[in-house]
Amino acid sequence: MTQISSDRRLSHNSVLDLMEMSLREVNQLLHDTRDGDFLIRNPRGAHALACGLDGDLNVTIEGHVGYYCAGMNKQAHVKVVGNAGTGVAENMMSGVVHVTGDASQSAGATGCGGLLVIEGNASARCGIALRGLDIVVKGSVGHMSAFMAQAGRLVVLGEAGDGLGDSLYEAQLFVRGSVRSLGSDCAEKELRDEHRAALRTLLDAAGVGGIDVAEFRRYGSARKLYHFQVDNAGKY
Amino acid sequence: MSVNEPRPATLPRYSATFDLHTIAEIHRAAATGIYDIRGFGAKRKLPHFDDLLFLGASISRYPLEGYRERCGTDVTLGSRYAKNPIKLKIPITIAGMSFGSLSANAKEALGRGAAIAGTTTTTGDGGMTDEERAHSRTLVYQLVPSRYGMEPDQLRKADAIEVVVGQGAKPGGGGMLLGQKISERVAEMRTLPAGIDQRSPCRHPDWTGPDDLEIKIRELREITDWHKPIYVKVGAARPYYDTALAVKSGADVVVLDGMQGGTGATQEVFIEHVGIPTLAAIRPAVQALADLDMHRKVQLIVSGGIRTGADVAKALALGADAVSIGTAALIALGDNDPRYEEDYRKLRTTAGAYDDWHEGRDPAGITTQDPELSKRLDPVEAGRRLANYLSVLTLEAQTIARACGKSHVHNLEPEDLVALTVESAAMARVPLAGTNWIPGAAGI
Amino acid sequence: MCGIVGLFLKNEALQGDLGRLTGVMLRELCDRGPDSAGFAVYGDGCKGITKICVVNCDGSTDWSDVAKRLSAVIHAEVAVEEIDDHAILRTTGSGEVARKWLIDTVATAYVLSQGQEIEIFKGVGSPAAIIERLNLEMRTGTHSIGHTRMATESAVTITGSHPFSTGDDTCLVHNGSLSNHNRLREQLVRGGERFQTENDSEVAAAYLASRMRAGDTLQQALENGLKDLDGFYTFLVGTREGFAVIRDPIACKPAVIAETVDWVAMATEYRAIAPLPGVEHARIWEPAPATVYAWSHAA
Known about the structure:
The complex is a heterotrimer of chains A (236), B (444) and C (299).
Chain A: E1 15-17, H1 23-32, E2 35-41, E3 56-62, E4 77-81, E5 96-99, E6 115-118, E7 131-137, E8 151-156, E9 172-175, E10 186-189, H2 193-205, E11 217-221
Parallel strand pairs in A: 1-2, 2-3, 3-4, 4-5, 5-6, 6-7, 7-8, 8-9
Antiparallel strand pairs in A: 9-11, 10-11
Chain B: H1 20-32, E1 37-38, E2 52-54, E3 75-77, E4 86-88, E5 92-94, H2 104-117, E6 120-122, H3 130-135, E7 138-143, H4 152-157, E8 160-164, H5 184-190, H6 210-223, E9 230-235, H7 239-248, E10 253-257, E11 266-267, H8 268-273, H9 278-291, E12 299-303, H10 309-317, E13 322-325, H11 327-333, H12 341-346, H13 371-374, H14 379-403, E14 417-419, H15 422-428
Parallel strand pairs in B: 5-13, 6-7, 7-8, 8-9, 9-10, 10-12, 12-13
Antiparallel strand pairs in B: 1-11, 2-14, 3-4
Helix pairs in contact in B: 2-14, 7-9, 9-15, 10-14, 11-14
Chain C: E1 2-9, H1 18-27, E2 36-42, E3 50-56, H2 63-74, E4 78-83, E5 86-91, H3 95-105, E6 109-115, E7 118-124, H4 127-133, E8 143-149, E9 164-167, E10 170-178, H5 181-190, H6 200-213, H7 218-228, E11 231-238, E12 242-247, E13 256-259, E14 263-267, E15 283-285, E16 293-296
Antiparallel strand pairs in C: 1-8, 1-14, 2-7, 2-8, 3-5, 3-6, 4-5, 9-10, 10-11, 11-12, 12-16, 13-14, 13-15
Helix pairs in contact in C: 2-3, 5-6, 6-7
């Protein structure tokens, strides 16, 4: 299980300042480097920052980022000290993406693996079409979160908005706070020992301590829409 | 006439509105409670390329000698922004069709045939198979709303990326694959449980609208270091606006798919009643490019019912840079082959009408995941057939182009065409044969 | 499809900077709105005087002549201030009557706004060039709304640019695409509304104005809009006292709001807010779907 690392030392030799370098130069440098520590300054809402990384990289971004930060991330550890726009870590494959502020909609969309941690709130469609990524949100998530989520886990310490897990496939959802409404074919399920253990591991990896896993409720697919039946037509 | 003779009967008369097909469909709907799902594209008669004719050389125009005098067919796609544009030998590409709706052998056959012919294949709503990447020399990788199979390593292995907004068979609809075709392998690639009916989104998960598409395209370029051309594919609905917006979003290539474009599976009503004919879509799209001074700078690929070299030549004459074939490619591989007539009868259909591709019982082994049926398609032999067909399409287009005096197929222009019907004249914006009249032009 | 921005000043000391800051925000959204731009500035008003902003859009307009003729029709003085291809007509007469007369009579001009505080300016082409040409950066006031446009289904013309205004001191900018605006337009026309374009956003503006004329508060009008307007939208609506933000229930089109002790800013993308002074202390959040967020200078 990949973890967020708060204790890795950052080499201050690799400071990339977006007031002095272009986004293209920064991304190309990160793509050409197989490993290393980087500090990126002055993102000022730039889009597609540190996307497509593939390597043993440790990237810290100081400031708020725009859309698709760390999109399609592989192996790298990316930390945003600030907020993230739409689609942070979309389609990530492995590694860790860590947002200290809030995330906009579609956080972790279609993610396949690794760990995405959001310390603040995530808005609508968090974990949409999830395909194996683990997401831990310390705050709340917005409406239509985990829409059509296929695999992986979404853990929410706060609340969930309307339509949680609508059209859910096999992803597992754990929410500690209230859920405004469940989406189509999403149902509450029993929280068993194996789920408690998995939650514990996930929370540890996300650096969340002092929470009793028993406070969470588990949600999963009711699997009624797996084969079309006339009487379910209204649920589509 | 005596009172004992039977009265003459009125002849049984079918209704044009409630024809046999309609009555059968209503019976079926009442019995099952589910809409009719099928593959293939729009089947009803539509204004199409057959309604247009070329004006061959006569006294005012001179033809080129066949075979001896050059008629170029090469096309470059993606010159706008990409470091590595795609160079095709022929102006015909293979359209996106998923592994899942097609068998692995079929995808391999398409790759082999395209490689021989010097053109591209395109992945579909299911990701990139190793077979297709291995055999297709130049591969276009689709970014579809479902994102099934999408991953950065494959993105990097692709030669171009096609952002799919929609397709001609169902503009506004998402992918569909039913349980009988979600084999273990398909399920694994799509991260779905095997055997279930796949539900797919119709919008992308992380962007909606051309203003946000602009940012998404930028992300794809950043991930791939600006090497690869980015295509945007739309189903034909509002081609003028859609083309303009694709250009403004940063597309290198626009792919426009008319309602005759095929699908592996969707609702029959979607196929027949949503979207516009290919013929009606081309001129508006070309006009949008011209109005933005982008004709030939952003390339236009047209698909939906391309069948012969005449169709290829007509699409190019109307302003397309290239065409794409889907249904025709499958037919070239062997779809709807009369030699399987006995099997078609068992499926309650007949060769030439078989369109229940969603059921996965294709006797030709193309639109199936069944291992036994798949074996019927030999990828090497089928690849050869596709290459042969592409060759014929190209030769036919060249023949027509030479007859019109063109040394390159791109020099075909609308003025080389006339129309046989008012509808096709209006849609293609070419005059009715023997007249100067273009219906709708200049307010008439 | 486009970019929208809004800036509401809580600190009076910043009023002199309103135009400059609005320009800074708009420049960040040129990529997503390259075709044209427009902005509304609220300020520099005088009780009892209505400002009518107009722009030449076809051929050329003799503004002094227009002012003279208008004056005769509404029986009130009409002063003219020309700014590039725009003009601000100031009068003590009825803004409503003036607007209708201008639309019906002056074919070469397009009415942008009327009201005590509001001034709207629009242009075609690069937003950065428009900001310069119309001197946005010198404008002062209490709040502003701006828009950069990527035309979807209408032509790129000055009339297609946002903000749209059909009521006193009210205007609207829209990011998204409505789907039932054509039938709605017919209904509004039957109710007496005048339209100058085929644009879906103009229909939304007219709808809200007509609901408020019928007695709705802005909040009620926006909430009624949730039922009556179909499609995808983030709306930013300006009124004499302030502005309001609402997103449709599906909320696919982005929006972010930021607030400090000195200002409230709204934009389609965070990077338009990033250059504002004091942003490092801002509370930043995303508006929830189908919820009205409003700020007002009125007590």
